[in-house]
Amino acid sequence: MIRTFHLFREQDPGGVSGTGKVAERCVLSNGCVMLLWLTKVASLSLFSSMENLERIHGHKGFTKVVFDDEQN
């Protein structure tokens, strides 16, 4: 099953991607993660796991992963 989610950033430590909903993502059935940045210069990235994505883009807790099927 493919799960969709987005990145929500409360602060932008790097000053590049902004705040709020900054990226849309999906987790594929094999655990790979696809990421589409919603910035002025959009880009698409592929990560081998959710852990690798959070290690790179988590910014020490400033970025939250919000799964769309878990929102209230």
Key structural traits:
single chain, 1 helix, 40% strand, 72 residues, mainly beta, globular, five-stranded antiparallel beta sheet, 5 strands
Topology:
Layout: E1 3-9, E2 20-27, E3 33-37, E4 44-47, H1 50-57, E5 63-67
Briefly characterize the structure:
11% of the residues lie in helices and 40% in strands.
Explain the overall architecture.
- The structure is a single chain.
- The protein has 72 residues and is mainly beta.
- It is built from one helix and five strands, in the order E-E-E-E-H-E.
- A five-stranded antiparallel β-sheet has the order 4-3-2-1-5, with helices on one face.
- The chain is globular.
- The mean pLDDT is 80.
Average pLDDT reading: 80
Q: Note poorly predicted spans.
A: none
Outline type:
globular
Q: Count the helices. How many?
A: 1
Helix fraction by DSSP (H/I, runs of at least 4):
10-25%
Order of helices and strands: EEEEHE
E-strand count:
5
Distance between the termini: 21 Å
Question: Strand order of the main beta sheet, please?
Answer: 4-3-2-1-5
- Strand content range: 35-45%
Structural class: mainly beta
Largest sheet: 5 strands, antiparallel
Rg on CA atoms, Å: 12 Å
